[in-house]
Amino acid sequence: MTQNPLLSGMSVYGLDLSYFTGKLQAYLRYCEIPFDYVDLDIGTMRKVAKATGMAQMPAVQLADGRWLTDTTATIGWMETQRSGAEVIPHDPVQRFFSLLVEDYADEWLWRPALHYRWSYETDSRLMGRRIAAEMMRDLPLPLGLRTAFITKRQQDKYVRGDGITPANRAHVESIYLRNLVWLEAILKDRPFLLGELPTLADFGFMGPMFRHFSLDPTPARIMREQAPAVFEWVARVWNAKASRLADQPLLEGVPQDWSPILRDVGASYLPSLAANAVAARAGLSHFELSLEGAAYRLPVNLNRVHCLKSLQATYQALEPDAAETVSARLEQEGAWQPLWGETAPDMGFDPEGRLPFLTAETAWAKGAAPKAMRRSVHDGAAR
Length: 383
Ligand SMILES: N[C@@H](CCC(=O)N[C@@H](CS)C(=O)NCC(=O)O)C(=O)O
Hints:
Blueprint: E1 10-14, H1 19-31, E2 35-39, H2 42-52, E3 59-61, E4 67-69, H3 71-81, H4 92-107, H5 110-119, H6 121-133, H7 143-160, H8 169-187, H9 200-213, H10 217-226, H11 228-239, H12 242-245, H13 259-281, E5 286-291, E6 294-299, H14 302-316, H15 320-332, H16 336-339
Parallel strand pairs: 1-2
Antiparallel strand pairs: 1-3, 3-4, 5-6
Bound molecules: glutathione.
């Protein structure tokens, strides 16, 4: 249990149905870091955007008044402030691959998660109604109107606007279905992805698997039927406590049963990050990508330029021995060349390296990306 006063008395601003809020809540619960949970409405979301420079959730406010944004950077900072069972593995090779898998879960499962929520009628009606009644509760409009508005906004932005078409829909769904198969194979033999303790890889996968796939009606039914061990793992991570697991071991190295995930990182995720970076450098709003026979026209996403930059920098910071082991494994999985397919351009995000402590003044360099491209990280470029 943490004794650090900096981690006492924090508030977490989020939504009970949000991907990244669920990920951070699972982490804080595991670390037994107490927090006040604030369910966002439109007014408090504006306050968060003003304070952090990012219109995204979750956001954390510490007792000393400072704000944090971005779950990866927030967890990274919190890990430096607490003791007890490690969430970011000490072993540099495990650390690199946990970060890589977390990034893949954050970004590459986002599209299928949003697709299942907003493309299926049962799911979109339910979640549209919930957002209208919960997050939009401070808007003086009838509930039906709020529901219609938010449902259309989410479909425009996260289905049509995120490149999902009737022609590539089955491919988008296959990203979820294949991850269920891979995770089921891992989790039938051990409680967490890297052994007896949850790590960043588990919390990363909690983003899509918890608030979306295990709870939205259509993907949840698939999970219950096809991947009961994954369904059980979601609850296990949610209920895990560092103080109870402190003496438990991680595996040595990165297990072979991570290979299918790492191969997908190399075959699809890293190539999409590289194509996104090329388009961002050229100042384009969209780019085309063909993956496993599926054609996509995707909006440029500035956050994902930052993702590629961070992954490359994480590799470059490794000591020679660890770097050799990491590159050999990436090579084995077909992910080494794709990691270096493109050098991530500097888009002016977080120019002073302050993450997670961003503010409206420090989030973007002066005159960086146009406003329409930087409202929130999962916004694509101007549409
Ligand atoms: N990389 C960020 C992503 C945060 C994010 O995209 N959150 C979503 C909700 S789960 C959001 O705020 N979206 C804004 C919107 O839909 O306008 C993190 O790790 O915190």
